[in-house]
Amino acid sequence: MVKIIIDYDECDGADCAECVDVCPMEILIIDGDKVVVQNKEDCSLCEVCMDVCPHEAIDVKED
Ligand code: SF4
Ligand code: SF4
Fold it and tell me: What's the pTM?
């Protein structure tokens, strides 16, 4: 399983959404003004969401 943790104290949500834009598996979506995780079992652990995040607010790891 994959664990995807978003630090909402650091995340800019819909004002940023860079991780949402780059995720090739559409795991990260905007819900209102927040980024939320869906279908995390489809995550390929590519880590591009972590690479683009300006605040290191998202962490993806094998659980
Ligand atoms: S690691 Fe890759 S597939 Fe998984 S949520 Fe991040 S960008 Fe999407
Ligand atoms: S890239 Fe980082 S700050 Fe931007 S929406 Fe994603 S988790 Fe939040």
Answer: 0.96
